[in-house]
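Hey, resending since the last one bounced:
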Amino acid sequence: MACNHPLTIFHPNQDHSHRNNPLTDLPNAQEVWNTIKTMQQPLLLSHQRPDGDALGSLIAMDTMLTLAGKTPIVCVFDEIPTRYTWLTGSDMTIGWDESTADESDGVIIMDTCSCNQLAPAANWLKTVKTNATKPIIAIDHHVTRDPLADIEMVDTSASAACIILHEWAKCVGLKRDSRVVTALFVGIATDTGWFRFSNADARAHRAAADLLESQIEPDRIYRRIYESESPNRFKLRAAALTATELHDDGRIAIMPITEEMFTRTGTTHLDTEDIVNDALRMSDVQVAVLMVEQKSDDQQIIKMSLRSKGRVDVAAVAQRLGGGGHKVAAGARVTGSMIAARETILAELDINNE
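The structure tokens again:
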């Protein structure tokens, strides 16, 4: 499809030096839109423990398709973090319901295409794909993914899934209101660390500037997301910082958060987002790992969030543990105790640094 707005599908082994030049080709954009046009009640999914980009993608797509006369079904696997409830409202279904999913006539997965991150729906998605009962579309910017979709619009050079959605929606001419614009901006701003991370490139700033033309208020959005912490979350952050361990001559920071910390501070796993970034403030730290203790069906699971200043590819580390992500931001889940998980991640990071 010829498109007057810049976007293409990039791959890791390609030269991206031309990416700041205007591009006129948008691979798969028309195929994605033509397939969505055949749906009346598409199921919208994103990853577990939704962040700003996942929720921004869901809200933007839901609203745009509603404006186009469709009735999407939005499914969020986990509770929505408090910092985003102002954005999502109360009309999202929390938890996986297979009978509701069966009512859909298509599936759109955004900001992931990993079975691990779609665990509650993974078996259902595999069955749908195998039996070809309804089309599955994936819109994503991560390198690691599973073959769940029939059609992929994947751009691994995009800083956020919401950048792809923004450019695609303009290309195919979808209507957008203030809720769509705000959701897209939230996705881009949060996935770039409010434009502080290395992925906050010219393309991300162009997309943000384009969205700012719609008179959204970035200062107000920032305060709602980053300056509205509860005292309990503040205490959890302090507890995690106090418990932080330094390894490998201070180059690796391990931040454990235990069930006892949640109980003591009156918090939950929803309050852990972004805490891992605090450890990167130390000058010598190259990799920070937040390890969150969780109980699931009598099993102990450690949820790991990995962040890097760039020298270490944490996506490669996470992938070896069954997870995935980006070079500087990734995640994985391992079964076992906090002690065992610490030994595992330190061994993997040592291998990665050899």
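The chain has two domains: 29-224, 231-353.

Sorry for the duplicate.
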